[in-house]
Amino acid sequence: MTVPVAVPIRSDAIRSRLNEATTRARLAEGTGAEALLRLCAAYFDLGDLLSLVFSEPALVNDPAWSTEVCDDDFHAMVARGHADGSIDPALPATWLQSVLWSQLYAGWSYLTDHQISRHEALALVLRTLTNAVKPHPG
To answer: What global pTM score does this model have?
Structure first.
């Protein structure tokens, strides 16, 4: 009998996939909110990799990850959103990054718990994120 061997997934491989998704999201294009939604969709499309990251947080406990939190491109995207009026200026970039990851987690959890399609789960995540970041009048 052959025993399957789990192939270890390295932290740098996960980071590489996330970086590729970030590049596909084109953070420098459109309004800040549009770019944030594209980033969310690109990360959501990573599918099982996100499930792995959420279920095995030790994979991303690499010290390099803590230095890459809210990189310059993410800050610039949020600052652009503040300036163009698409992101509430009371919401700092570091907070929005936490909101992004919490919504990704919520979407994947909901997807597995309620047997809905990925498309339906992503639509819920994007709707929630859209309403969370939009400016609120006075």
So the answer is: 0.84
